[in-house]
Each structure stands twice: as C-alpha cells, then as structure tokens.
Amino acid sequence: MDGVDLNVLRSVLEWRRAGRAVVLYSVVQTWGSAPRPPGAMLALRDDGVLIGSVSGGCIEDDLIARLGDGRLSPVGPPVRVVTYGVSLEEAARFGLPCGGTLRLTEERVGDPAWIEQLLERCEAHQIVARELNLSTGEVLLRAASRADELAFDGLVLRAIYGPRWRLLLIGAGQLSRYVAQMARLLDFEVLVCDPRQEFVHGWEDQDGRFVAGMPDDAVLSIEPDERTAVVALTHDPRLDDMALLTALDSRAFYVGALGSRVNSQKRRDNLALLGLSAEAIARLHGPVGLYIGSHTPAEIALSLMAEIVAIKNGIDSLQRAPLPRMSEVAT
C-alpha cells in the first residue's frame, strides 16, 4: 500500500467524523492495460471533493459526474461494482489503452471505526487484510503478510494494507541529503542516524527524522522489517560496519553500503572477521545502485533509489553500478 492510499483513508476518516457522506472506490480487477493497479483507491465526498486516483483522470471525471447526475444513489446496496472499458469506444473514452478494462467497488462508508483501527495497525508497522463483504458492506480486519495479495471473487474483496516503506540512512552528509529528498518524493519514511554532530546542521527535520544513538543502536531501535531499507553512507567503517552488522541480521529487505568494488570486498572480509555469517554477508548490496554512469551526488542518489525501488517491486537481478571514488564525491 502506498502513501497515496493511506492519505485517502485518513481523509475518509476525517470526513466521516465531520458527518460528511463518503464513497470509497477501490480498483479490484483490471484486464489489458490499466492506468492504476488493483488496490488503488479514491474517495469521493458528498460535495464532489475527491482524493486519490483510480485512473489517469477520465474515470475520476465520470465518478464526479455520477454524483451530480444521480447515478450515484444514496440508497440501495452498500457496495456496488462499477466497470469501465467493456467496449473499445468506452475504453477510448476513459483513456484505457488497448481495450483495457477496469472494475471498481463503489462503497458507501458508514461507521469509520475500521479505518481508525487499520491506520493504527499500519502505524505500528503491521500488514493488515481488509475483507469487505459486498452484500452487507461489513468490514473485517485480519493479520496478513507481505506475501499476501489482493483477492476478489465477486462476493468478498480482500485487500492488503501495510505501513509506509522506510529508509534508514547512516550518515548525514551531502549524498544523504540527495537520497533523502528523492526517497521522500517516492513516499518513503526517511530516518537518519549520524552521531557526528558536525553533519547534523541544516537538516532541520525537512528531509528525515533523526534517530539518536550509534548506528547499531539506531538499527535495533527501529526494528527493521520487510518494508525497511538500511543504507550506510558515511564511508567510515567505524560507523558503517556497526550498522551493517545489525542490519544484515534483520528482516530489512535491502541493506547496502557506499563504496567501490574493492572497498566493498574489504568490507565483506571485515564483516566475516567480526563474526557475521556468510549468508548474512551475501545480502549486502555493495557497490550500491543501478549502473547509470553516475558521477555527481544527485546521480548516485538516483542510482541508489532506483535499485531500492526495483527490489521493493520484486526485481532483484539487475546490474549494480560501480560508483566513483569517494574523493570525487563531496560528503
């Protein structure tokens, strides 16, 4: 679940608490090319204000029109299924390329207690399944795992929700600032640890939240899970290796460290001498990043975030980039 959908639910909760009527749309099935994947959400308030997205814009316009022309009835079943793009003409009208088809649930939100509970569980870094009964509108929340996927059988919608993806940066130098800015644009929660006070100035909580303590303590304190990435960027083994020793034995989906191929091999050898298992060391990404010929801090940050996003999205067999010598990068 991405931050857009979390924001949709936060708005729905706020609107319902204020007494406004809200309809929640969820993409449940797609065929052919579709602009948004199953699970994407949009909320439409009774005055036409909306948040979220289920398409490139054309379907959103039609949903607002449904509210205005009476097609969106305030009575009847609590949940309906709405389909767009059955014909080539309709697909073209709604911007669905190659005859794509999009199916949505149209859910009138009643008691918002389930939204509050779901958001609380996501904030606690739990993965949650929401089961929506289409005939009754009843919602049940159950524990889920990262391997679970959205399922829809025409009677029950089982959607998976989880916390925001997190990125812990070890080091607050110039490169970390670029990485943090890009990560926030990609909707990562950015955490930063750097015990060197000289590097803290200028962050001012704009690009990341600082985690106190030494790097190994910082890793332990955030309890890395399958939605957490940890990257060591100080190029100082006294700091980087402390974090790596802890992070590589955690459930973090990505653990990386800045450095050349030669320095990365030295780091692996040092981690072995410190007692880290071969299996854990094999998880280390170093050099970090996809190969894009990067030279500047901004380009290196782009390379790094591209690799992290690729692995987050299940693509794990990509060529990684040799980065320039640290003497060429101001940190």
Textual characterization of the structure:
This protein folds into two domains: 3-161, no CATH class; 166-328, 3-Layer(aba) Sandwich (Rossmann fold), CATH 3.40.50.720. The chain is 33% helix and 22% strand. The protein has ten helices and 15 strands. The chain has helices at residues 3-17, 58-69, 88-93, 113-123, 174-185, 215-222, 237-247, 261-273, 278-281, 297-312, and strands spanning 22-31, 41-45, 50-52, 79-84, 101-108, 128-133, 139-143, 151-152, 156-161, 166-170, 189-193, 209-210, 228-232, 254-257, 284-285. A six-stranded parallel beta sheet has the order 12-11-10-13-14-15, sandwiched between helices. A five-stranded antiparallel beta sheet has the order 3-2-1-5-4, sandwiched between helices. Strands 7-6-9-8 form a four-stranded antiparallel beta sheet, with helices on one face.
Q: What's the CATH first level of the largest domain?
A: Alpha Beta
Distance between the termini: 33 Å
Label the CATH architecture of the largest domain.
Answer: 3-Layer(aba) Sandwich
Compute the number of helices: 10
Number of strands: 15
Total tally of structural domains: 2
Strand order of the largest sheet: 12-11-10-13-14-15
Look up the CATH topology of the largest domain: Rossmann fold
